[in-house]
Amino acid sequence: MDVSARGPINQTGSFVGSAILRLAATQAGGLDKSVYGIKASSILTVGNLIAGIIAGVTMPFVGALVDHTDHRKAMGAVSAFLMVMAVGAQLMLSLETWFAVFILEIIGGYFLIMHQVCTMAYLPDLSHDLTEMGHYTARLMMTQYMIQGVYTSIVVAVSYSVEMSNIQTAKLGAGMAFGLGVVLFGYAWTFLFRKRPKLRDVPEGSNILTTGFKQIAVTTKQVFSHYKALKWFMIALLWSPEAGAGTILAIAVTFLTLFVNMKVSEISVVSLVMLFSNIPGALLSRFMCKKVNPLNSFRLAEISFAIVNALIAGTVTGPERKNLVYFYAALMGVSFGWMFPSQRTVAVALIPKGQETEIMGLIAFFGQILGFLPAMIFTALNEAGVDMRWGVGSVSFFLLTSCLCTFMCGDFNEAVAKVAQSSDDYLESYSRKSRVEASFVDEDGEVKDGTQDAADAVNESNHPSEA
Q: Which helix (H) or strand (E) holds 436?
């Protein structure tokens, strides 16, 4: 239900974003004219840049709330609610209100990132089996793409049948996404997601505002010291546009709207081609994860993505080559659908069991640290008057850099075996600690009289660094 709602919410950005670009250019008096201090053609990527930087700074605090409180479900529900409200308010889009809608796009984009952090914390609960997790992640992505595809098909069909303007098409998309979000998010977070207990207490001497940053430092040091494959995988995520889809969406919509001169309805068709191509991509991910292992599957998907992106930058030279976009959209869709399930399967495979929540949060954070760079480079080149194709082509550099980093991970099977061994040791230690501590606690959960000192001694023996 949650991924089904996220699909249309994601897709709305392309419809509303394209309309915002045209309205900004109209108010500025041209694409190369400035509005609010920047070129009209840089509006979307600047918005993505702002959301990405704010997310990178605040996600440790969000992660602390997920780990150290029992509000994980509440945070997921609230972030979903705010996303839906931001999309619903975009129905006021017009020449007079486009900037307010642009601000709402930034707000919605931020809470989408926050929502993904909350939902990723539930992902390790699905299964510890690698094959099963590959199946789950592919199935979730396929569901999202399918619902998103049906939604986009309706927008395309209606917009073409009644010859809607760009603004009308954008409002249709926002209205439908709002309705679907209310129903699907509402049902998922009311009936399906369960309330989870906090993972741990806030450490002594810390508070909820700072503990997230401290925990990131501690967990990063632990991962970098003991898990080589996971370390280099997280470094690779610094360069992979995971934040991803949002960054690429902002660049793509700007390029298609202003350089290729596509209308919102035409961009809708491009989106539709991509979405339905995502489904075979997700199936390909599941096949390749079994055939060549998830890490190699992820590498091949990134290479595929980079090549297709480079071809777009190199061969789509203007509106006269518009038809090429539809062909490349199909190839891009396969690469997208292949890459992200493979990435999530690698993450789950390399995370030591018993530490899933904290390390999954760290992985989500690493995906945000440099997530703003593609948008920043695209914006800088555009503001300098450089051909927009160079900005699009720069995305391939990030993908290939990410792929090269994964080759430092070493042998995937050896890494998984090492994680399994350390996981067994961790879980055995945790189980032994739990059994011993249970002997000091009565049926009501209170420490038995005269046993507090012994209980403290057990705790210190299991956490010597904190003693």
A: helix 412-438
On whether the CB atoms of residues 18 and 255 are closer than 8 A, the answer is no
What is the greatest pairwise CA distance in the chain? 84
| pLDDT the model gives residue 445 | 47
Pairing between β-strand 38-39 and β-strand 34-35 as defined by DSSP bridges: antiparallel
Residue 421, judged by CB atoms within 10 A of its CB (0-12, 13-18, 19+), counts as exposed
19's tokens:
């309309």
3-state secondary structure of 441: strand
Per the prediction, the chain carries an average pLDDT of: 83
Percent of residues, the chain, with pLDDT higher than 90? 41
pTM strictly above 0.90: no
236 vs 428: CA distance, rounded Å: 31
For 242, the token pair is 């995971």
411: phi then psi, degrees, rounded to nearest 5: -70, 125
DSSP state of 447: B
Q: Encoding tokens for residue 206?
A: 């810390």
Backbone angles phi, psi at 447, to 5 degrees: -70, 130
- Three-state DSSP class for 39? strand
DSSP result, 315-375: H--SGGGHHHHHHHHHHHHHHHHHHHHHHHHHHHHHSPTT-HHHHHHHHHHHHHHTTTHHH
Q: 219, 121 in Cβ contact below 8 A?
A: no
Q: How far is CA 173 from the centre of its chain?
A: 21
Cα(385)–Cα(7) distance, integer angstroms: 34
For residue 153, the tally of other CB atoms under 10 A from its CB is: 16
Which value, in Å, is the radius of gyration of the alpha carbons in the chain?
23
Cα–Cα nearest to 218, from 358, 51, 102: 358
Spell out, as residue ranges, where the chain has pLDDT lower than 70.
Answer: 124, 127-131, 133-134, 242-246, 354, 356-357, 421-467
SS3 242: coil
Cα pseudo-dihedral 395, 399, 401, 403, rounded to 10: -170
- Give the pLDDT confidence of 363-394 residue by residue, as tens digits: 877 877 887 888 899 999 999 999 999 999 99
